[in-house]
Specification:
Elements lengths: L2 E2 H11 L4 E4 L6 H8 L5 E4 L3 H15 L3 E5 L3 H15 L4 E7 L15 H5 L5 E4 L6 H15 L2 E7 H5 L1 E2 L19 H13 L3 E5 L7 H11 L3 E3 L24 H9 L2 E5 L19 E6 L13 E4 L2 H11 L11
Parallel strand pairs: 2-3, 2-4, 4-5, 5-7, 6-7, 9-10, 9-11, 11-12, 12-13
Antiparallel strand pairs: 1-8
Length: 338
């Protein structure tokens, strides 16, 4: 039975786990907003500006680890959206940005408030496409959602208003078969090398970023096995309970002197899901050349990108930390922390 393309797209958002869409009412997204209004799985959260919508979606993704979404009309709505889009792109937030486009026969003719959405998103997204026919809609939305989730980045999908309103024989694409990847763990040799370095360190330290969310239990187990202080970044505050004896705060430009001192004095640093940014490393001055860094990250492009590493462990945080725990020597670790 034919349905409006907008209804199918909204249904598919719900199937893929999207629960909040932040945005502002606008002419070129009326079809999608009307579809959102007539169902209950996906909630539309109205914001004062498109910039606020994108920032709210980015914050939602950072705090929950779930797929975030925002929506904006074309032209000035899209340009306003871009600050939050770049925030999500920089911090590797899985976020879908949907923009409404004018009717197709109005495009590329100096139409009212027309802007080149594709060019704006090109440098700040892992996926960037426009739906051109109703039959493309579910497939392109699935590709956008898969890219945002798998690459932890922004995916942009532009939907012309006439396609939103069009009725067609299309069905939502379910996530089954599109998100069936297994958790990545590094090779045994690299894990053993990292475990040997950590166990033999005089002052081991763990620096956990936002990529360590969901790995609290093995993170603390490893910290206690090593007697290693744990530092977090601003984005990962709350990852370690405040009453945890090994929790020593946040280093860097927004951190504490104690955390800075510990980061300077450590001889082996296990970096988990952290990009070693300017703010975390105090303008890149807190780490010293003689320190040995072991970096765990799901994105191999982040490993050794800023500081050279002794061992790079490409994998998800939780299973990688569990492998490190298993690989530690049975003898108790001896540290010089006092």
């Amino acid at each position: 039975m034919p349905r409006q393309v907008s209804e199918v797209l909204v249904e598919q958002l719900g199937d893929w786990g999207v629960r909040q869409v932040f945005g502002v009412m606008g002419e070129t997204v009326l079809g999608l907003l009307n579809a959102l209004r007539h169902q209950e799985r996906v909630r539309f959260v109205a914001t004062q500006t498109e910039q606020a919508a994108a920032m709210a979606a980015s914050a939602y993704g950072k705090l929950t680890g779930r797929l975030a979404a925002c929506i904006a009309m074309g032209g000035p709505g899209v340009t306003s959206l871009m600050t939050g889009v770049h925030d999500a792109h920089s911090d590797r937030v899985p976020m879908l940005a949907i923009t409404g486009q004018p009717r197709r026969w109005w495009q590329h003719a100096d139409g009212w408030q027309e802007a080149d959405d594709h060019a704006l998103f090109e440098t700040a997204s892992a996926f960037n496409a426009e739906i051109e026919t109703p039959s493309q809609a579910p497939t392109l939305l699935a590709a956008a959602l898969q890219a945002a989730t798998s690459q932890r980045d922004v995916a942009h999908l532009a939907v012309p208003l006439d396609i939103q309103m069009m009725e067609a024989e299309v069905e939502a694409v379910l996530p089954q078969g599109h998100l069936n990847w297994s958790l990545t763990v590094p090779g045994d040799d690299a894990v053993r090398q990292a475990a040997h370095l950590l166990h033999g360190a005089a002052r081991p330290l763990i620096l956990a970023g936002a990529g360590a969310r969901g790995a609290q239990e093995p993170l603390l187990e490893l910290a206690h096995a090593l007697g290693a202080p744990v530092l977090t970044t601003c984005r990962s505050k709350g990852l370690v309970p405040a009453d945890e004896p090994l929790s020593m705060g946040v280093p860097g430009r927004l951190g504490t002197p104690l955390a800075d001192r510990l980061l300077r004095e450590a001889d082996v640093i296990l970096v988990v899901g952290c990009s070693l940014s300017q703010r975390t490393t105090g303008d890149w001055q807190l780490l010293r050349p003689q320190q040995q860094i072991i970096q765990v990250d799901i994105d191999p492009g982040r490993i050794g990108r800023v500081f050279p590493v002794e061992v790079g462990l490409w994998g998800h945080a939780a299973p990688t930390l569990r492998e490190l725990i298993v690989a530690l020597p049975q003898t108790p670790a001896q540290t010089a922390w006092t």
